[in-house]
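#random but structural
TW: two for the price of one
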Amino acid sequence: MPQTCSPQFDARLRQMLTRIVAVLVMLLSFAPFSVSASELLVAHSYKMAGDTSRMRLVVHFDKEPDLRWFLLRDPHRLAIEMPEAEFRFDAEELTARSMVTGVYYGNTGPGTSRLILSFDGPFAVERVEILQNESEPGYRMVADIGAASEEAFQTAMAEQVATTGATAAAKGDRLVKQAVRQTRPFRVVIDPGHGGIDTGAAGVSGTQEKTITLAFALELKKRLEDVGGLDVFLTRDRDLFLRLDERVKIARQNEADLFISIHADSIRQKSVRGATVYTVSDKASDPEAAAKAIRENLADEIAGVVVEEENEEVADILVDLIRRETQGFSIRFARSLVEELKGAIAMIPTNPHRFAGFRVLRAPDVPSVLLELGYLSNPDDEALLRDPEWRAKAANGIASAIGYFAAARQGAGG
C-alpha cells in the first residue's frame, strides 16, 4: 500500500524549493552579461587612405556605435573602444600602409571590443566623428590623423590622462585635438631636393642636383643658426633617398612654421637661367610650372617606389579651410622671398613666383615653397651654383626673407 506524505512534510519541501529557487535567481543575477548574436554591434568595413604624413580611417557599422578612443605609446597606438562587436573586415584592407604599421581587433572582455592601430611614429588625432550613412543603412566612423611631433603626442597623452583617459566620439561631434603651442623659436625645415638613388638633374659639366641642393641646404642651415632665434632642421643631411611624403612628414613632426624645398633643375632651353620660387596650387600658373611639377612629382617612381595616390575622401571642409589659410601664408612668404633674392642673385626674367601641383608642398598646415636656385642646364648658372660666394649671397637673401616672415607670424600670434 503506497505511503503518503504528511502535510507538515509537504510544507517543509515547498519551503526548501522556494529557497533553492531564490538562491539560483541570485546567482544568475551575478553571471556575466552575454550579448546575443543578434544584438552584437557589427563592424563590417574597414578603409584607410593617405600617405605617411596624413591619413583618413573609415569604419562602417550596422548601427550607431558608442565609441571612445585613447592614445597608447611604446609603440605609438590609437585604441578605439566599443561595445562587444562582430568584426567582418577584409584582411587585404588591413595591410600596413601609409602611417599604419599594424591593425588589431577583437573582444577585450564581457561586453567590450577594441580596434587598435599601431603607427610608425607620433601622430595627432585631428577628428573622430560618427556619421549616419546617406545612401544605405548604418553608420560610419571617420577619423582624420596626421603626423605630429613627439612633444605634441606627449601633450595629447597628458591631456587624455587629465580627462579620465578617453574621449567620446559622439555622433556629429567634431573632436579636434591640438597641442597647445608652446613659446618657442620659429621653426624652419629645409629640404634638399632628391638624394640617394634619385640624383635629380645633371649639369652641363656633370654636376648632380642632389649634391648641389645638399651643399646649399647645409650652408643655409648654418647661416640661419648664426642669425639666431630660429630652430632649423633638415629633411636629410647626407646622400639619402626620401619619398616626397616622407619629406612632408618630417616637416610636420618637427612642427615646422615654414618648409623650403631646394632644387636646381635642368631643361632643354639652355639659355634659360635664374632663380624661381614656386608655391602649390591645383591649377598651374603656366605650362613651364606644370611641367616642373610633373618632373618633381615623378621622383618616387624614378627611384622605383610604388606610390599610392591619396584617396580624395581625405579632403574635407575643415582641411580645405586650413589648406587655404596655409596657402595664403605660403604666397606671402614667396613674394617676400622673391623681393629679397632680387637684391642678392639673378631671378628668372618673367614670373619669378609661379605655382603648380607639387606633392612635396602639400602639407595642409605648413607654409611651403619650392626654391629653384637656378638651372644646371645653363653653364653660367651651373658655375654660380658651384660658387661658395654666390651661395652665400643667396643664403643671405633667404635668411632675410625668413626673418621678416617669422617676425610677422610671431607678431600675429602664430
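TW: number two ↓
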Amino acid sequence: MTPPTVRSSAAHDAGKADGASTRAWTLRLLVLGIVLSALNLRPAITSLGALLEEVRDGLGMSGSVAGLLTSVPPLCFAVFGVMAPRLARRFGAGAVVCAGMVAIATGLLIRPYAGGTAGFLAGSALALMGIAVSNVLMPVIVKHWFPDRVGSMTGLYSMALALGTALAAAVTVPLTDTLGGSWQTGLALWAGLAVAAVLPWLPFVRGRVTPPGSEKAPEATTGGDVSVGDTSARDRDEAARTQASARAEHARVQAPRLRMARSRTAWALAVFFGLQATAAYITMGWMAQIFRDAGVPAGTAGLLLAVTMVMGVPLAFVIPRLATRLPHQGPIVLALGVCGLVGYAGLYLAPAAGAWAWAVLLGVANCAFPLALTMVGMRARTGPGVAQLSAFAQSTGYLISIPGPLLVGVLYQHSGGWGLPIALMSALMIPQMAVGFLAGRDRTVEDEAAR
C-alpha cells in the first residue's frame, strides 16, 4: 500500500506540473496579446497620413485644420494616458488594454462615416483614447510579467508597433485603390486588426489569470510529511520562496505614490518623450505630403513613409536590448539625433532626389520611441513605480508634443513651402538630444523622489 506521504508528494508534484503548464500557456497568450495590441497602436495615425490629401479634400479641411487633426493624437494620449494607472488599479491592466482595443476598433470603424470634420475628429478621439491607455500600460505589463526580460519584451513590443505603423503606411493607398478608391473604406478596414487584438485579452478581463509568483503559496506540510526527507525540504523551501514572492508582490501593489515632479530624471524622460513624439507625429502626419509636394507620386510617398516606419522593426528589437546592457543610454540618444538632423537636411535640400535615404535616416531617428519606453522600465525599480513613471512621462510628453504638428500645418499654409517647417523640426532635435542624454543616466525615480 502506498504511504500517505508518498501520495501527497505525488499529488503535489502533479499540481506543480499543472501550474507550470498553466503559467506557460498564460505567458504565450500574453505575448500574443502584446504583439497584436502593439500592431494596432499606430495604423489609426499612419493610414490617415497616407490619405491626408484625400481626407482634406473630402471634408474640406484647410492646412491649419489638417494640422489640428495631426495634433489630436498627442492631445488624446496626454488626456487619456494619465487615467491608465487608475483604471488599471481598479479593473486590472489586462482588462483596460482589452477595452482599449475595443475603443480602437469602434473609433476606426465609425470615423470615416461620421459625417463632417467634427464627427471625424470624434471618431479619431475614441480610437486614440484606446491607444493612449494601451501606450501607458504596455511597459507596466512587461515589467510585471517579464521582470527579467524587460529589454527583449520591450523590443518585441516596439518591433510589432513599428511593423503595424509601416504596414498601414505602405498598404493603405493600394488597398484603397483596390477597394474602389474610397478613402472611407481605406481608413475603416483597419478596424478589423483591432478586433483581432481584443481576443487574447479576454481571459485577463476578470483576473482569471495571475502573474507568475502571485499564486497562493501551498501550506507547509507537517507531521508525517517530515519523513519524506529531501523532497519535503525542497517543498518547504519552494513554499517559502513562493510566500516571499507573494509578500513582495503585495508590497509592490501597496507601494506609496511617488512625487514624480521631484525627480529630475522623470522630467528629463518626460521632455525627451515629448520631443521625440513631436518628431514622430510630424513625420507620420506630414512626411508623405512633403514628398508629394516634391513631385513624388502618392503611392511612392506612402511607401517612403512605410520605409521610415519599418526601420523600427529591426532596430526596435536591437536598441532596447543594447540599452539595457549599457550603464548610460545617452550615446544611443545622440546617435539617433544625428541621423534625424541629417535626414531633415536632406528633406530641405533634395526631397525627391534622395528621398529613400532621407526616409531611412528619419526611420532610424524615430527609434527614440522604443528607447524611451526602455528607459521608462529602467528608471524605476518596481511595477507601481514604472506605472507612475510611464503615466507621468507619457502624459507630460504628449502635452509637450501637441503644438508641433499644428505649428507645422500653420507654417506650411502661410509660408507656402516646407522650409520653415523643416527648420522647426531640426531645431527641436537639439533639446531632444540634450534631455535624452540626461534621462539616460543610471538613476531611479524612487531615489530622487525620496530626496
